[in-house]
Design a protein that fits this description.
about 40% strand
Length: about 120
C-alpha cells in the first residue's frame, strides 16, 4: 500500500514545486513602495521625476509598489502632507549605482524641527 501512494505523492510534490513562481522572476523594473514612518498622513509622494505618485499613506502604513525604470538608494522625494510640501533633494548621483531589479521600500520620515525628510532604503 505504501508503494502505491509513494509515486502519486512524489509527482504531486514535484508539480507543486515547479509551478511556484517567485515574485522576483520576470521583473522588468525596480519596484518601490513607501512606508510612512512619521505621525502625519502623506497625501502624495513623488519619487524622482516619475509621473506616477504614491497617495494617501497613513502613519506606519505602506503604499502599493510602483514600477520605476531606474532608482537609487536615495532619490529626489517630494511629500505633500498637512498642506505643506517636504522635499529631499540629492545633489547628484555621481558614483552611485542604480538599484538592481527587485522590490524595495523607501521608509520616509518627516523631521519637523528642520522641515526636512529622512529616507531609509529597505530591500524587500
Amino acid at each position: 500500500m505504501k508503494n502505491k501512494l509513494f509515486l502519486p505523492i512524489v509527482l504531486l510534490m514535484l508539480t507543486f514545486c515547479f509551478s511556484c513562481d517567485d515574485r522576483d522572476d520576470n521583473l522588468e523594473a525596480v519596484n518601490i513602495r513607501i512606508k510612512n514612518t512619521s505621525s502625519v498622513t502623506y497625501t502624495t509622494v513623488q519619487v524622482g521625476d516619475a509621473e506616477t505618485v504614491h497617495t494617501n499613506i497613513a502613519p506606519d502604513a505602506f503604499s502599493e509598489y510602483l514600477e520605476y525604470e531606474t532608482a537609487y538608494g536615495y532619490a529626489y522625494i517630494s511629500i505633500e502632507a498637512d498642506e505643506q510640501t517636504y522635499t529631499l533633494q540629492p545633489i547628484d548621483y555621481v558614483g552611485e549605482t542604480p538599484l538592481p531589479l527587485g522590490f524595495y521600500t523607501y521608509e520616509l520620515n518627516i523631521i519637523e524641527e528642520s522641515n526636512s525628510l529622512e529616507l531609509t532604503l529597505v530591500v524587500d
